[in-house]
Amino acid sequence: MTTIASGTGTLTRDALAVLQPGFTGTSAPSWLLRRLGEGLTSVGLFGRNIASPDQLAALTAQLRAERDDVLVAIDEEGGDVTRLEVRTGSSFPGNHALGAVDDVALTEAVARELGRRLADCGVNLNWAPSADINSNPANPVIGVRSFGADTALVARHTAAYVSGLQSAGVAACTKHFPGHGDTAVDSHHALPRIDADLSVLHSRELAPFRAAIAAGSRAVMSAHILVPALDPDRPATLSRRVLTGLLREELGFDGLIVTDGMEMQAISATYGIERGSVLAIAAGADAICVGGGLADEATVLRLRDALVTAVRTGELPEERLADAAARVRALASWTTSAKNTPAPLTTAAPDIGLVAARRALTVTRGSDCTPLTEAPYVAALTPVANIAVGDETPWGVAAELRRVLPDTETGSFTGEGAGAEVLAAAGSRRVVAVVRDAHRHAWMAKALDTLIASRPDTIVIEMGVPQAPPRGTLHIATHGAARVCGLAAAESLTTP
């Protein structure tokens, strides 16, 4: 049995230091502040914690009054995955739109402005960017969160995003290592598996992570995926071969390794979050992300006690836990020094997101295409949102079109029969059909067939991955469903 020479107090502080928990509410609960005083070093924020920039700044100030170097983390990818603007939609297009433009200077500028806004609110660790290559078009969880399907493109934009974000003093956490793009299962629900061979993994999946490491990414997030070519027995988050052997030793990453949310079914339903957390730290992870769905003191105490017990029984080397805690504190120290270091002299670019969204549009016009001059009927063909995106955030073009054409009407449709339902609801109005990933949903493609057959002047706006061929008298691919993507599309619809 391992001897805990440094004492229970140090061990408990180290166990708290490696946790990145969430909480409920728009101010910090007393239990969270108390645990920060006892050694907790990180806090994770979600949409439920954010009402406005001023409120968020007050919340982070409340946390720093208890611990001035606290890591305040957020899942703010921009695009479809936004927490800062969860109730309005993001002011920044996501990765797929930036990849469609393929201007690394633009990507860096967008990430810098996003980082500036996070820093202004007191957030200093962003669980972004996604470095996954969207090599499987059927992927249900990555999609527009990826810069694209081309390895070199994803690598250069990942590096640019890391540089832009960190130039604003916000640590980047590049995800989901070793690459979640070639999956057909959402790890929120089950354990995905990637059966690519080792040579493919090295030439494809790992290339963007090498670029991120070269760009100085302060953190990397692991994926809850099984990759038999790397480890046939354990998912990456729990695999010493993947986290220590590959990421640390072979790729030379010396920053913080963060797990994806341990409450996700890929881990919680197979190992449980307590055992999963112990195995993750033992494998080489330094920080346990938990709190997307488990956001209470009891969860923190369960995980703290599981780690302490694992050290006491010899299952988890005390030195490994101490090393993990030291890496968390080192990143906290970096964010403090970054906050006190003058930022590079760059002009603030508050409209850079809209500029990027406009440039990302791909517009295909038929020979009989005419712009909208009268208020249309906007039919949102709405799939079930994945958990990373959530269903709180509005999307589409109706709200933006209403600013120009105030009598615009709209409805949401799903499932078999959606096409006929749209026709009945639209009446004589011109139809604007808004879709997300039409190539992944047979009912959606069928609805478009029905609409275009009956109403050839139907306009189609694809706000997911534009994998299906363009159709309709006017087809606009926005490469994402951020609010600015909808605004850019609405502008295009009403401009001759």
From TrEMBL:
The keyword Hydrolase applies. Pfam families: Glyco_hydro_3. It comes from the Bacteria. The keyword Hydrolase applies. Residues 40-329 form the Glycoside hydrolase family 3 N-terminal domain. InterPro entries: GH, Glyco_hydro_3_N, Glyco_hydro_3_N_sf, NagZ_Beta-hexosaminidase. This is Sugar hydrolase. It comes from Streptomyces dioscori. Belongs to the glycosyl hydrolase 3 family. One of its GO terms (biological process) is peptidoglycan turnover. GO terms for molecular function: hydrolase activity, hydrolyzing O-glycosyl compounds. The lineage of its organism: Bacteria, Bacillati, Actinomycetota, Actinomycetes, Kitasatosporales. Keywords: Glycosidase, Hydrolase.
